[in-house]
Amino acid sequence: MTKGKLFNRVLRSAASMLTRQGFHVSEERYSAAYLKRYGFDINTFIDVGVYQGSPVFYELFKDKKFVLVDPQPDTMEKAADSVKGLNFDYIQSGAGSAKGVATLSLEGPSSSLMKRRDWKRQPEKTVEIQISPLDELLENKGYKGPFGLKVDTEGFDLDVLKGAEKTLRETQFVFTEASLRRRFEGSYRFSELVAYMAEQGFEVADVIPHRSHNRLVDVLFVRSDSSYLEPNAVPVRMVGSSGKTNNQS
Question: pTM (2 decimals)?
């Protein structure tokens, strides 16, 4: 028996045992190894809402051009280790549907331009920032498509996408954090996000749940006319109660 087959047998045995104890066992989908199966072929990756970086995508597209968009003044200090060795540009700005000034509540990775409904505490610090449509921030910079786009802006995600309609026309996929519950005052409903992306020619290809709660998920949108929506385009190893693995789309 090869090492690979032995390893898979051990995994199946462990997964079966955990399932019998009431645990759900599935493949880690927020990983470069999993997302690589889609075969995305882009020239530029745009990361909106950087904070400490997006290592999964930096690994996946390490030989591509990166555009990092974030308004926080210490973004490059926090993301220094993640972006080391990458070919990137940093744009210090907020992104939204229109140009203006807004108040950003500084809460580390949970920093937001929206007022929270799910937290009772007040933000420790706020800062005034400039906001511009992503289309304007990228305009005349010579960035080459097709693009990959990641948006993680704590409830402001749909607003960011509404300011990126021109960019979306050259975008192969969009990976965005999405609220399932109304976590912020005046924020979107999940159905509104899906409907807007459908209007832009995108469909949901994958939904990755949060590990510890169901208030939000990560959603992968791909172009509705692309091959990435075909059945079995990305085989997922799921482990059932019998311990057997099956390929599912």
Answer: 0.80
